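## retry 2 of 3
previous attempt timed out at serialization; input unchanged, resubmitting
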Amino acid sequence: MSHSPTSRPALIVVDVQRAFDQWEAASRRRNNPQAVARIVDLLNAFRACGAPVFHIRHQGTHPNSSFLPDGTGYPVKDEARELAGEPVIVKQVNSAFIGTDLEARLRAAGIKTLVICGATTNHCVETTTRMAGNLGFDARLVRDATWTFDRIGPDGDAHSAEEIHAMTLANLNGEFARIVSAAEAITALRDA
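## retry succeeded, writing output
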């Protein structure tokens, strides 16, 4: 029995861009070192099933942004490069739904379930996931296919990438999204 593409989830790959490699090279510490490998697993599974894949790119607007369109941080990492026919949606804010036609594309295709991965957990991935849930999509955030970086809070407290990642997942779980592993998302895709 074959399924129509609209009965399958869509993969949303958020901001897997070279700027994050540059941040690491500048000694910014991240968690989830295997996240890009899990994103590759998801891409391979979605493509093998003929399920839709949407690539999101962040385009910086501030002069010191790591994501300026003519800068070295803007291009996608080679591992996550889109294939012909896979849409690339460019955003200028944290949410992939603001200032883009992502929602319209998803609705036009009858897509109800979104599997979300990419970078960073507590910024563009979180904002996109929250909006997906608020817009009524069945959002599934892939915990091992996203990552973030250590940060200093407003009071000078140091927060590890692991702590930030875990708290973001806890905040989103249940209300905005279901938190899943890449293996769980792939199994669900194959069972759809």
